[in-house]
Amino acid sequence: MLKNLTIGKQIGIGIGLILIVSAVVAAFAISGLKKSTQGFSDYRTFARESVLSGRVQANMLIASNAAREFMRSRDEKAVETFEERFAAARDFALEQQSMMDDPRRLEMSRELVLKLDQYDDKAQEVFDMMRRRDAILGDQLNPEGVKMRQALEEIMVTAKGDSDSEAAYLAGIALKRVMLGRVHLLRFLVDNKSEDVVRVRDELGEG
Predict the structure, then answer these.
(1) How many CB atoms lie within 10 A of CB 169?
(2) pTM
């Protein structure tokens, strides 16, 4: 059939077919490019979310270590480190949340921020309790313990001067129990073991 057409028409039809094929190929290429671009965009988003997750975890690890350091040493600089790192972790968590489109991951991110806030509230409560504990120990328990020890030692000295061996003996027993009670009190404040509370009550005569 093409043989019956003039050369000009055959060339025109050939060019038309080439243009059609070229258009189809271009359409597929554009479609593939869009998919590749979308895939790269998704990958980049996931990568950024992963980086932010790592930053949240890293800062929370440092914050947790700082909290433990404060409870060990009572160094207020540790609290400053905790608050600084916690704030950074929360900011990264919020930034991560703002990038999420998937409803399930978005809900998980919101739950994470909520848990972070709860963690901070409890940590601040613990810090305040430790400060109050130290104040009670330093301002009340330690001075009273010293007074009891001094009073019993004075009784022992005066009893010896009066040749009252029974009074000296009883004062010595009382001094021993006071000292043991204070030792177990300090142990409880460090380890929070209930058996130390029992020993304090036994030694100091509180049933």
Answers:
(1) 12
(2) 0.65
- Are 204 and 148 a contacting pair, CB within 8 Å? no
Do 97 and 110 touch, CB atoms closer than 8 A?
A: yes
Place of tokens 């104040």: 135
7-16, 77-86, 176-185: segment of lowest average pLDDT: 7-16
In the block, residue with structure tokens 């992963």: 50
For 28-77, write each residue's pLDDT tens digit: 445 544 444 444 445 565 667 778 788 888 999 999 999 999 988 889 99
Structure tokens at 189: 């404040």
Burial class (CB in 10 A: 0-12, 13-18, 19+), 91: middle
What contacts 24+ positions apart, CB below 8 Å, involve 19-23? Answer: none
d(CA 154, CA 172): 11
Two tokens, residue 151: 């009073």
Assess contact for 28 and 20: CB atoms under 8 A.
no
CA atoms within 13 A on the CB side of 186: 8
Contact 41, 56 (CB under 8 A): no
Percent of the chain at pLDDT > 90 equals 15
